[in-house]
Amino acid sequence: GSDVVVLGLDDLYQFNFALDYEYDVETFERELEQADFAEKNEERLTRLLRAARLDHGDFLPEIDAEGALVERERLKRRCLDGLVSAANLALDLNRPEQALQSCQAALNIDPSLEEAYRLAMRGYDAEGNRAGVIRQYQACIQAMKQEFGTAPSQQTVHLFELLTRQ
Question: What is the CA radius of gyration of the chain?
């Protein structure tokens, strides 16, 4: 019948796309695609934030097959890229709180994402929160040391010096 979820076609099986269904990965991808084509920054930011809210952790975490691992990493990267874009847009729109939320979401996914630390430092600076800038920089130093055994990049150091200069 029309309510069959898996269709058998010769020796292959496929999902019955004729069903009324919702798949969060498809919705996530659609929001990111629509963000790319949005004409206004407001709409683009809204789409990116909607996509980010659809992230519920690793894709198929219980499956170690190569195909699942590749897709898991691809989706993680897309989510991180979307969050970084959202943070940049939020800063452009003078919404530092939204930028900071996007940065925190990105750092929850990848605590070593140095770009998110830089954006968060800019967000705190936009709020006039010098202590926040310093705390974020210190968190970045710790994450880079722990993850890679190195210091933050010159770009991050330079931004910190610029933002904390009197």
Answer: 20
Which pLDDT value is given to residue 119? Answer: 98
Sorted by sequence, the CB contacts under 8 Å of residue 24 that are 6+ apart come out as 54, 56
- For residue 121, give the 3-state DSSP assignment: helix
- For 38-55, what is each residue's pLDDT tens digit? 999 999 999 999 999 999
Rounded distance between C-alpha atoms, residue 154 and residue 46, angstroms: 32
Asked if residues 27 and 78 have their Cβ atoms less than 8 Å apart, the reply is no
**pLDDT value at residue 43:** 97
| Inter-residue long-range contacts of 58-64, CB under 8 Å, 24+ positions, other chains counted | 59/25
Of the candidates 24, 89, 91, 84, the residue with the CA atom closest to the CA atom of residue 53? 24
What confidence score (pLDDT) does residue 20 get?
79
Q: What percent of the chain has pLDDT over 70?
A: 98
Q: Work out whether strand 6-9 and strand 12-15 pair parallel, antiparallel, or are unpaired.
A: antiparallel
